Amino acid sequence: MSVLDAFRLDGRTSVVTGGNRGIGRAIAEGMAEAGADVVVANRDA
């Protein structure tokens, strides 16, 4: 078992605010890679 197996998010939903760029985008991509269904929320300035 690898370390990443302990952090699997299969069957979970993740909401990421500010996910259109920068840190938020990286977090959203990481959550998706870990198996989560990701909802990305951002606002237009």
Automatic annotation (TrEMBL):
Q: Which InterPro entries match?
A: NAD(P)-bd_dom_sf, SDR_fam
- Origin superkingdom: Archaea
Q: Where is the signal peptide?
A: none
Tell me what this protein is called.
SDR family NAD(P)-dependent oxidoreductase
**The organism of origin for this protein:** Halobium palmae
